[in-house]
Every structure is written in C-alpha cells, then in structure tokens.
Specification:
141 residues; 5 helices; elongated
Length: 141
C-alpha cells in the first residue's frame, strides 16, 4: 500500500526569499506626479488636489545617487547584457524608469553571481522606492 502524500499547503513552508517571514514588504514604482517647489500656495493646491500627496514622486535630485547605486551593483560583470543594462541605467530620466530596470538587473546578477546575491542587491536597491504594505494572508482563504 502506498503512503499518503504529505501535506503540501503553503502555510507549513518557509519562504525562500530573503527572510524567514512569510510577510514581505515590497516596493512600488514612484509616482509620476512631482510636488511643486514653488510657493506655499502651489504646495497647498497640490496637497488639496492630489488623491494621495504622500505618493508624489521624489525630488529629481535623488536620481544621480540612485543611478550610481544601480551601476555599482553591476561592478565586476563584463558581459554584453551587463553593458547594455549599464547604458540603459545611465540613460534613465526618472526613478520610475530605474524601478522598471530592476527585473533585468536581477536576472543579470542571478546568472553571473548567484540568486541569493541578486536578492540581497535588489532588497538594498528597493530602499530608494516607496514601500508597499505586505499582502493580507486572508486573501487566499
């Protein structure tokens, strides 16, 4: 007689991503809305008219530092894919564009180094983007 299959529910398993907790805090792309740098009246109007003013795009002066952090994560990788990604990173005009580069960066890091290194690098780069609350565990019931 064959033995029954073990319980394969996801509740008994540990996450394979970074931490041991099933709850992870992700990141989302920065907003396209830019808070005005003008006078108090313009800022007040922006605050009143915006559906979520705290989700406004970060100031554009942060872009060079974030761009250099992305480029630093590719240091030591000399492949054609990495060179194309470096060019793509250097030609970005916003943090939102950099947010969309993360998938390609993860792929190149995972192939040329390791998946664990790629996960750590991406979690470090995610600090530059707005945080998303963890998903409710009740959604799967």
């Amino acid at each position: 007689m064959t033995s029954p299959l073990p319980n394969l529910s996801r509740w008994g398993r540990r996450s394979t991503l970074l931490g041991t907790s099933a709850l992870r805090i992700g990141c989302m792309p920065p907003s396209l809305r830019q808070a005005p740098e003008g006078n108090a009246w313009q800022r007040l109007l922006f605050w009143l008219m915006a559906p979520a003013p705290e989700n406004a795009a970060p100031p554009p002066n942060r872009l060079p530092a974030v761009r250099s952090a992305f480029l630093a994560s590719l240091e030591g990788i000399a492949t054609e894919d990495a060179d194309q990604l470096r060019w793509r990173i250097q030609s970005t005009h916003s943090l939102r564009e950099l947010w969309h580069v993360r998938a390609d960066l993860f792929r190149i890091l995972a192939v040329n180094r390791s998946q664990r290194t790629a996960e750590l690098q991406l979690s470090d780069l995610n600090r530059h983007f707005p945080a998303r609350a963890p998903r409710s565990q009740f959604g799967t019931l």
